[in-house]
Design goal:
By secondary structure, this protein is an alpha/beta fold. About 35% of the residues lie in helices and about 20% in strands.
């Protein structure tokens, strides 16, 4: 019975796959190419997989019967309005929608605000516009750097409103691009706030208009997150604000306190100091940049903080922040993080609250399907399937992105969404979150993938293997030296017994672009034995990683089998 069942299921999947490919080809407009995370990677272009990568991809593409409760793919059969409804049109929802249409699924996406979500409208996209300005300002103001290149530049200035307009215009352009890309391939964009009212049922609507109810074979929750503001902090949006307000750049204060020294805080410190502000960090933990590899954080502090108009207080909470009013400055009361005793009161012109983000999951109707959030996050399993209060998987319901809290990055949300669509389409797919890179777009940039050194050594102690570390400097790279940008380091953490990459961390010029060779190697299970033989163009920054891989000492006699997912 088991073999018959599997055979029937496989036939249904194969048949559905053929229908979905035909439907996708018919619906895809000329000139648009869609490519996602999938086992049949060669279909995405003239890509050659190594023997190890091909083997791994094949293992990951094994169909999983009843992955979504569907017997076939393509069309909205079974009396449903849609094959897939996505609640939330941020980067995660957008990535899932495009891949779903590629697979021939009738798809709708519900958005109560604007397409693009936090990343496009209030996050990564406009912040990169501001950081592009700060990077150029730093270069123009660095007289020594300019002279070393034989350049003479007069005093550089900026137009605050023009800088703000650049960020806003970029967000508008990307938002329009995302909207048009979905419309062009037939995704229905439904306006309103989505609520789950029962199994495979969603109600959506907006104020002043009657609600509508639709049904879907599968539902993905992709509602994202909002800035987290601790108790005791009063936001006025002018002198005490979150990153949402800061991206509008309505002012450049002479002295600004930034509460939190993670990605958001670091990037804004780069912007504000380049535009002339003095910055004070307030960090609850005992060291700055607590989420980074400690060695990288130490060097980054020397380059990004100690050389700039930045001071800091660590091991303290901002227990109360009062906005400026009646001619008085912003008041920040600091208490010891451990003893809770009052330390001091800061008086500054403005305060940016960069204490992380909180999931936006209220009002989704989760109580209708017996789902209870955990600190606001929607519980999911390794396949992003939502689990209920009893620990059981809720059929046909998935949650991706910041709302599930697994990895709060826009590209992680997109990858999770594509992984879910793979499952809905009948192919099992489990995303390896350790292969997802992260980047901080300061000047110079910081990037990372995999484990930090302490995390790797903790894992090694538990599982009984050895950890090795090698480092290379940007000072040894011809391209970096040609640009007089030798400040930087790349760090590789690996297993010498197997050649498996455990983590890579980079601080230096274009670090955010360089990290992907390492992240893709982890994703494909490529070992250092193979990477040592890879060829990099000379002279390029990519040779930083080339030298890093070649410096690794892998035990002889290790087979070049791919690393298991």
């Amino acid at each position: 019975m088991l073999s018959v069942s599997l055979s029937a299921s496989s036939s249904a999947i194969a048949s559905g796959r053929a229908r979905s490919e035909a439907a996708a080809a018919a619906r895809r407009p000329g000139g648009i190419r869609l490519c996602g995370l999938r086992g049949d990677a060669p279909a995405c272009g003239s890509l050659r997989l190594s023997h190890a990568a091909a083997s791994l991809a094949t293992r990951r593409a094994v169909p999983r019967a009843a992955a979504s409760g569907n017997s076939a793919v393509g069309g909205s059969g079974g009396g449903f309005d849609y094959d897939l409804v996505i609640i939330g049109a941020g980067v995660g929802g957008h990535g899932a929608a495009l891949h779903a249409v590629e697979e021939g699924l009738k798809t709708a996406i519900i958005e109560g605000d604007v397409v693009g979500g936090t990343c496009v409208n209030r996050g990564c996209v406009p912040s990169k516009a501001l950081l592009a300005v700060s990077g150029r300002m730093r270069e123009l103001h660095d007289e020594h750097h300019m002279k070393s290149l034989g350049l003479q530049v007069s005093a550089a200035g900026y137009d605050r409103q023009a800088v703000a307009d650049h960020a806003n215009n970029l967000a508008s352009k990307i938002r329009s691009n995302l909207t048009n890309s979905m419309k062009a391939i037939g995704v229905d964009i439904l306006t309103g706030f989505g609520t789950i009212v029962g199994k495979q049922k969603v109600r959506y609507g907006k104020a002043g208009f009657p609600d509508k109810e639709i049904t879907a074979k599968n539902i993905i929750i992709a509602t994202g997150s909002v800035p987290f503001v601790p108790k005791g902090i009063e936001i006025d949006g002018k002198t005490v604000f979150t990153s949402d307000h800061a991206l509008k750049l309505e002012s450049v204060p002479d002295w600004i306190a930034i509460v939190g020294s993670g990605y958001i805080g670091l990037e804004f410190s780069d912007v504000y100091t380049a535009l002339g502000s003095e910055v004070t960090f307030v960090e609850a933990l005992d060291q700055l940049m607590p989420g980074f590899d400690p060695e990288i954080a130490k060097l980054a502090q020397r380059v990004l903080i100690n050389t700039r108009k930045i001071d800091y207080h660590t091991g303290v909470f901002a227990s109360k922040i009062t906005p400026a009013k009646d001619g008085k400055p912003v008041l920040i009361e600091l208490i010891d993080a451990k003893t809770k005793e009052h330390k001091e009161t800061l008086e500054v012109d403005a305060a940016l609250i960069a204490t992380g983000r909180a999931p936006f999951t209220n009002g989704l109707g989760l109580e209708n399907i017996n789902v209870v959030t955990q600190r606001g996050f929607i519980p999911v399993d390794e396949r992003m399937q939502v689990t209920d209060a009893d620990g059981n998987v809720v059929p046909n319901l998935f949650c991706i992105g910041d709302a599930n809290g697994k990895l709060m990055l826009a590209h992680a949300a997109s990858a999770q969404g594509i992984s879910v669509v793979e499952q809905i389409s009948g192919r099992d797919h489990i995303l390896n979150h350790l292969s997802i890179p992260a980047a901080c777009f300061t000047h110079p940039e910081i990037s990372m993938v995999g484990l930090t050194e302490p995390q790797a050594r903790e894992k090694a102690d538990k599982e009984g293997f050895e950890v090795s570390v090698v480092k290379t400097s940007f000072k040894a790279n011809t391209k970096a030296l040609a640009e007089n940008e030798g400040d930087g380091i790349a760090k590789l953490i690996y297993r010498p017994d197997t050649g498996e990459i455990l983590g890579v961390h980079i601080l230096g010029l274009h670090a955010a672009d360089l990290i992907h060779e390492a992240s893709n190697a982890i994703a494909l299970g490529t070992r250092l034995q193979e990477l040592k033989l890879a060829v990099h163009a000379h002279p390029t920054l990519s040779e930083v990683l080339d030298e890093l891989f070649k410096a690794a000492k892998v035990n002889s006699g290790v087979l070049n089998e791919p690393v298991a997912a």
